[in-house]
Fold each of these.
Amino acid sequence: MSSDVQSIETDVVIIGAGPVALFAVFELGLLDLKTHIVDILDRPGGQCAELYPEKPIYDIPGIPTVTGAGLVEKLMEQIKPFGAQFHFAEMATSLEKLSDGRWKITTDAGTSITAPVIVIAAGGGSFTPKRPPIAGIENYEGKSIFYAVRKMEQFRGKDVLIAGGGDSALDWTLNLAPIAKSLTLVHHRDGFRAAQHSVNQMRELVAEGKIQFHVASVKELHGADGALEAVTLQGADKKEWRQTANAFLPFFGLTMKLGPIADFGLNLNENLIAVDTEKFQSQTPGIFAIGDINTYPGKLKLILSGFHEGALMAQAAFKICKPNEKLRFQYTTSSSSLQKKLGVG
Ligand SMILES: Cc1cc2nc3c(=O)[nH]c(=O)nc-3n(C[C@H](O)[C@H](O)[C@H](O)COP(=O)(O)OP(=O)(O)OC[C@H]3O[C@@H](n4cnc5c(N)ncnc54)[C@H](O)[C@@H]3O)c2cc1C
C-alpha cells in the first residue's frame, strides 16, 4: 500500500485480515456495509497464510479438506463482489473517538480511516518481523532496511539484497527482480520453505543471470546516516566478501504479539478482548472483537467460531451504521436482492 497519507471514511474498519475478518467482509457486504481492512502482513489470511499455508484443515463445515492457503483463496473469491479495500503492510497503531461519535483508526503508514464501527479481528496479535542479529541494524531500519514492501517503486533502480528462505523472501525476489538494478538473494542453506513454483522461478532467474543467489548470511552493514552502501556476506565455507547493496529486505519470520491494540483503552482480559455473545461487541460501544482475539465463556479458538461471530457482529454493526433502516433477515438461497449483491442474480 502507498505510504502517502490518506484519510478515508467508511462503514466498518476491520483490524486484521485473517480468515475471520475475510468472512466478516462477506456478512457485512450482504448488509451493504463497506469495509476497509488493515493488516501488518502483505497478504490476506492471517495465521492460515503465515503459519500453515500448506497444511490441510479438516473442520471447515462443508469442505472436508482445504489447505490454509486454499481457504484464504476461497474466502477472497467469496468476498470479491463487495470490493473491500485492503491496507496491507500497515499496522493499526491508534484508535480515537471523534466528537461525532465515530472512531478513527490510524496506521503506521499515516493512513487514517473513520467509521462508526471498528471490528478487531487481530487474532493472536500482529505478526511482527524478527530482527536479524546484525550490529547497528536499527540505524538503517525504515531508511534502507525494510521488513515489508509497502511500495515496490521504492526499490526501482536499487541494488537490492533479500535474505530468507520462506514465501516472503521468494515472492519479493520474483517481484522486485524486474525493477531492481541488481537483486541478490541470500539464505543460510540451499533449501527453501517457500512454494516450490516460486523456488523454481527463482532458480530460472539465477540460471539466466538476472539475479544472484548465495548460500550466505549477512555479517556486517556498511553505510552512513541510515543509507546502506554494502554488506559483508559470509558463505557456508566461512569466507567473507563485500556486496554492494543500498536496500536490504530481511525476511526471517514473524512473531505474534498484541502490539498497539493493548493501548486502545479496551477492557482486556489476559490480552484478549471480552465480548458479549449476542453481538460480539466489547465493553466499548461500536468496537467489536471477533475471532481468536476475543474471549467469552466457552470460547473455542476455531475458524468456524469466528465465522459465526462475524455474522452476528454484522447484524449489530448494521444497526449502528444505518440506524434509520430496517434490517431484514434473508437467505442467500432465496433472496434475489442478496443474489444481486453477489452478482449471481
Ligand atoms: C498450525 C495451526 C493449525 C491450525 N489449524 C486449525 C484448524 O485445523 N481448524 C481451525 O478452525 N483452526 C485452526 N487453527 C487456528 C486458526 O488458524 C485461528 O483460529 C484463525 O487463524 C483465527 O483467525 P483470526 O482471523 O481471528 O486471526 P489471525 O488468523 O490470527 O489473523 C489476525 C491478523 O491480524 C493482524 N493484526 C493484528 N494486530 C494488528 C494490528 N494492530 N494492525 C494490523 N494488523 C494486525 C495480524 O497480522 C494477522 O494477520 C490453527 C492454527 C495454527 C497455528
Note: The chain has seven helices and 22 strands.
Amino acid sequence: MVDRELPSRARCVIVGGGVGGTSIAYHLAELGWSDVLLLERSELTSGSTFHSAGLVGQLRGSVSLTRMMMDSVELYRRLAGTEHDPGWVECGGIRLACSPARWEETRRQAGWAKTFGLPLELISAEEARERFPLMETGGVIGASWLPTDGYLDPSRLTYALADGARRGGCRILTHTRVTGIEVRDGAVRGVRTERGDVECEVVVNAGGMFAAEVGRMAGVRVPLVPMAHEYLVTQPFRERDGGHMATLRDPDHLVYFREEGDGLVMGGYERRSAPWALTGGDGLDAIPPDFNGRLLEEDWDRFEEIAVNARVRVPAMEDARVTRLINGPEAFTPDGEFCLGETDVRGLFVAAGFCAHGLAGAGGVGKAMAEWIAGGEPPMDLWRMDIRRFGAHYRSPRHTLARVREVYETYYDIKFPYHERSAGRPLRTSPAYEWHRAHGAAFGEKSGWERVNWYAANEAEGDEALRPRGWAGRHWSPAIGAEHRACREAAALFDETSFAKIEVSGAGAAELLERLCDNHVARDVGRVTYTQMLNRRGGVECDFTVARLAEDRFSIVTGTAFGRHDLAWIARHAGPGVQVEDVTSRWACAGLWGPRARDVLASASTDDLSFGYMTLRDVAVGDVPVRALRVTYVGELGWELYCPMEYGAALWSTLWEAGRPLGLRAGGYRAIDSLRLEKGYRVWGADVTPDETPYEAGLGFCVRLEKDFLGRAALEQSTPARRLCCLVLGDPRAVALGNEPVRAGGRVAGRVTSGGYGYTVERSIAYALLPAEQAERGTPVAVEVFGEWVEGEVVAEPLFDPQGARIRGG
Ligand SMILES: Cc1cc2nc3c(=O)[nH]c(=O)nc-3n(C[C@H](O)[C@H](O)[C@H](O)COP(=O)(O)OP(=O)(O)OC[C@H]3O[C@@H](n4cnc5c(N)ncnc54)[C@H](O)[C@@H]3O)c2cc1C
C-alpha cells in the first residue's frame, strides 16, 4: 500500500528511497521509531540501487567497516526465505592473487580477518577453480576464500526493507521531491517538498549521488562525485550443476564476476574514470532533475580494457553473447569510503557516497545510522566513515573530483602502508614549506596539509641496515633513524603547524570543559593538561592537551585530522556563553626537543625558560612572539612553540640557525612516530578509539573520578576486559603496521593497533589490545607479520625513560 497524504509533522524525515534510506528506516523502526517519513522523489530504487550488480563482499580495511559488512550479511541471511526474501545467495567469494605483492596483501588480509572474526581462508589456484570452474588458473599464485560472501537482488532487498519499515510505522511517500531544508539556529527544523512542508527534528540525507545537492539545501557540503560505473550481463551459456558458483574478484586484472542464471555478470574498475553530470571544469555535480530509473549510454571504449582482461581469466567470455552493458552512475567519495553521520547542522544526518559497495554495506550502515540517530552518538568507532573526516578543503568540488578520480582509478591497486595520494597537492602548506623543500623533505599529506615525513638530507647519517623487512621497508628511509637519534642525543626540530587548534572561550568555558574532560583541566592560568573526552559508553571520543590561557579562555591542540571531529564534539555540548572556534590557520608551530633543546632555545631568547613541565609562557624567540608550551610527544625536554602564522618562517629559520652549532637536526613525522612508540604515547583513531575506555587504553592516570564528567557513569559500571599492551617482537626487522593478529594463550587474542621500530631501544614495538588475562608483563605472544608468526612478549611500558627524567630535564 502506498501512502498518499503528506503529513505536516514527523519526528524524522529520510530523503531518498534507495537501499540506504530504506535500510535506515527499517532499523529506526526496529528501534521503535515509528514517526518516520521517507520521501522519494521518484520510485523506490530508482537512483543507483536498481542497476547495482548486487555483489556482497565483507572484508574491508578496518574492524568497524568489516563489522558493518558482517552486520549486512547477517540481516540478508535473516531476511532470506521470509516473505521479504532479498534473493540472498551465500555462495562464497574468491579473491585471486596474481603477483607476489598481491599474494602478500592477501596473506596480510587473511591475518586481519582472523581478528575480525571472518572465516577467511587461503586457497590454491586449483581450489579456486573448483569453486569457480570457468576460470583459467594461469598466473594465479593463490586466493582468499570467504564462504559467507554472496550476492542478492538490489531491488528486492530495498522493497523488503521498505516493507519492514512500514510495518514498524514508517510512512513512505514516493513521487515527493524534497526541495528545501529548513535550518534555524544551527539546527534542522523541517523540509520543503513539492507537495508541502513537513516539520521535523531529524533529517537524514540518504540521497545517494544526489546527496551533495540535498546537502546544499542546508548549506552543508557533502563531498562526493557521481561516477559512471559499468558491468555487463551475458546471455545463458554455461551448464549448471544445481549448486551456486562463488563470486570471483581478480584485482590484478581489475575485474569481478558473479553468476546470473546460466550466464555471468562481469564488471570492473576502469583505469580511465568517467565522472558524470558535472558543470564545466569546476567539478560541481548537476544531475538532471529527471534522472531516475535511467542508465547512461553504453561506453564500450572505456570498458574495453576490462573486457579484454575478463577473457584472460574466463576464456568462455570470448564467445559469450552480451545481453547488455549496464552503465550507471554511483556516488564516490574522496577516499572511497562511506560518508556518514551528523553534519554541522544539528539534526541533519547524511548516509551517502557508498562507492559501489552500498549493497554490501546497506544492512550495517542502516543499523549504525539508526543507532546513531536514536542514541545521539555513533554506536561504535565510525571515524573512518564520518563526514567530519573531510576537512574544509573538500568544500571545493574541483579538489574533491581530483581525489575521487585518483581513488577510483587505483581502486584495485595494492595499498602499501604509508602510500601517499598525489591528486590535489600541494594545498595547505606551512610557512616553512619552501625551507623543507630545499632540504629534500619527503612529504606526506594529512587533511590537505603537506607534512614532512623525513628529509633526504639526513639519509647519509642513517643506517640502511635497519630497513624493516617486506612492506614496512617500502616507504622508509635511513633518515628516520638519524632524525630519531638526533632528538634523543642532541636536539631535533619538527614542523607541527598542521596540528588542529581549537579555542574555547567565554564565561561558561571552564565549566563546559570540566564537564566534558575526564581530567581536571580548569586549573591555574598557564597550566597545560593532557586529557580525554569520553562518550556515554565511556569510550575515548577525543584525546588532546588543554592549556588554560586565561580565566575564560582555553586552547586545545589535537591531531591534524581530528580538528573538525573534536570541535563538533565540544560545540554540540556547549551552551550559550561559550564560543568554540577552530584557530588552526592562525598559528604556526615548531616542536623543539632533545637534551640540548634548552641550549638551542636559550641562544635565541633572552626570556627565562625555566618554567616547568606542562606549563606555558609567552616568550620571544629571535624577533618572533611565541607561546611556548612545555609539553612533549617524543619523551624529551622541549617545547611546542606557537607563533602567529605570518611569523612561522622566521621562527623556523631562527631556531635552525640557533641550533646548528649545537647539533640540531630537522626531523619528520616518521621519526616522531618511532619516538612516541618508545614512550608509549597513544594515537587516537588507532591505539585508542571511541570503543575503548581510558582504562583499557592505559590512560587511567588521566581519569578524575572524584568529579562529574560525561562518560563517568559508564566507567564506574565497567571492569576493563581488555588492555592496550606494549609488545616487543623477537626479530627487530619484522615490523607490524597495524591490524596484525596477536596470538596469546594458544589463540588469536587481539590485534596490533600500531607498530614500528624504536631506534633508541633497538626493538620492534607493537601495541595491541589484549584480554586482561593475557595483558600481564612477560606473557609470550606471537604476531603474524605477513603470514609469519613472529615471537614476542608483553613488556612493561614505556620502553624508554619510564621515570620521565628526560622530560623534566635540568
Ligand atoms: C554499475 C553499478 C554496479 C554496482 N554494483 C554493486 C555491487 O555489486 N555491490 C554493491 O554493494 N554495490 C554496487 N553498486 C553500488 C550500489 O548500487 C549503491 O552504492 C547503492 O545502490 C546506493 O544506494 P543509495 O540509497 O545511497 O542511493 P540511491 O539508490 O541512488 O538512492 C538515493 C535516492 O534518493 C532520491 N532522491 C535524491 N534527491 C531527492 C530529493 N530531493 N527528494 C527526494 N528523494 C530524492 C533518489 O531519487 C534516489 O532514489 C553498484 C553501482 C553501480 C552504478
Note: The CA atoms of residues 434 and 649 lie 9 Å apart.
